[in-house]
Amino acid sequence: MTDIHALAGAYVLDAVDDVERAAFDRHLADCESCALELAELRETAARLADSTWSVPPPALRMAVLAEIRRTRQERPGPAGRVGPAAAGAWRRRLAVAAAAVLLAGGAGAATWVTQEQRVRDARTEADAARDEAGRIRAVLAAPDAVVRTGVAPAGGRVTVVASASRDEGVALVAGLAAPGPDRAYQLWLIEGATATSAGVLPAGQGGGTRLLSGVRGKGLFGVTEEPAGGSAQPTMTPLVSFTLT
Fold first, then answer.
1. Which is nearest to 24 in space by CA: 40, 36, 45, 8?
2. Does residue 51 register a pLDDT over 50?
3. Predicted structure pTM score
4. 65: closest CA among 17, 98, 23, 20?
5. Residue 146 class from Cβ within 10 Å (0-12 exposed, 13-18 middle, 19+ buried)?
6. CA angle 43-48-51, nearest 5°?
7. 160 touches 170 (CB < 8 A)
8. What is the mean pLDDT of the chain?
9. Which backbone phi and psi does 61 adopt, to 5 degrees?
């Protein structure tokens, strides 16, 4: 039978069965050295824990248990019990073996978590894209949809389909002269002297499609060239502008 003193490492790693756990719980009440070792092992395990792999793959725990099973136990002494020195050596080897597996698996687990996050991000982006595509289709099919088009003096066309009932619109920009790599076309919804940004195209691109929100009550639509990322307010007279209503 396994020496009860030798279960400290496995106990910390939750690698004991119910019978061993109950026996070790009873043993802890009367064994000060095991209680002290348990506290030290828990502190070590806490230091090994890292937020980048706090949810490790199931294979990691199996690897720890496999390493514990491979760790040689000391033979019982003449009296049928492992001596204190031998038991301490066995427990130290167990702790080292478990820590080695945890540290070796840390990089793989971190990669696993990173990959999982990338999958979640990709799913979120896909869901957002599907939602936007559905809203664009709804605007184009709206019974009250109106279509307005403007042509830029230097070439290119801007078309807006707007639905007051949905308070949304779709802007299609095509053929505008490509701005510099640090410049971008910005879309505006204009009412009186107030211009509200309706989106910014990617830097350096002369075309794109944008879903517009808040079109109801807006009298004008315009496009300006701004620094990449857009401006709080137009910095120039719109290159293209036309009424929405």
1. 8
2. no
3. 0.54
4. 98
5. middle
6. 115
7. yes
8. 76
9. -65, -40
